[in-house]
Amino acid sequence: MSFNWVSSEPNGRSGGLLFGFNSDTVDIISHNCGKFLISSIISHKEKNFSWKFLNVYGAAQEVNKRDFLCELASFCHNSSVPLLIGGDFNIIRRESDKNKPGGTNKWSFLFNAIIEQHGLIELDLVGRQYTWSNNRLDPTFEKLDRFLVSPEWDLAYRNVIPLMS
């Protein structure tokens, strides 16, 4: 098995992005980096099927969340191929994404609007209900990491199950 890697530089206090792919199975046709994501066109060799992967690290700081959501919406809007979007969005979608009350806000509303506008489907994660903790004595847990797909991507890869560890 031969792996290749695509990465982006750190952005302030936020780390950069990195993802690996099995070059025996897929080719990276092109990629470019935004401030909060890496966009890659991927071609699955066996299926002769191309799609766009957006590897995201959403803004953790309130002041940058609007810029993140604008960039995400722009990359989704400009896609002419099926989409797989995954990573740490740093935004919860619904109250059940947090173990304590008071989770959703205007960013949740805008994030959900982008998902709905592009007809994206959230894949169920297996392994953990929450993906982040503040590690306090009375901890707050939130689901910030997720995978979203377009209906065309979902149809081509019906048996994909994202595992969280």
From TrEMBL:
| Endonuclease/exonuclease/phosphatase domain: residues covered | 9-156
Q: Which domain of life, per UniProt?
A: Eukaryota
Q: Cross-referenced Pfam families, in alphabetical order?
A: Exo_endo_phos (PF03372)
Q: InterPro entries per the record?
A: Endo/exonu/phosph_ase_sf, Endo/exonuclease/phosphatase
Query: Which is one GO molecular function term here?
Result: catalytic activity
Can you say what this protein is called?
Endonuclease/exonuclease/phosphatase domain-containing protein
Species annotation? Zea mays
